[in-house]
Specification:
The chain is an all-alpha fold. It has 2 helices and no strands. The chain is about 75% helix and about 0% strand. Keywords: Membrane, Transmembrane, Transmembrane helix.
Length: about 50
């Protein structure tokens, strides 16, 4: 389960950076990055409640 969360978190953060840089949509980029950090098992995880 931890590996799946890492992959999901990395995909969300990379997608957020892509949206920020390539599409210039700041709000969606920030939202994706924050959600990626919340899902990731390395820091704060919303699944460890």
């Amino acid at each position: 389960m931890g590996t799946l969360l890492w992959i999901l978190a990395a995909a969300l953060v990379i997608g957020g950076v892509y949206v920020l840089v390539a599409r210039r949509q700041v709000l969606w980029g920030i939202v994706l990055i924050v959600v990626g950090l919340l899902v990731g098992p390395g820091g704060v995880s919303m699944f460890d409640v």
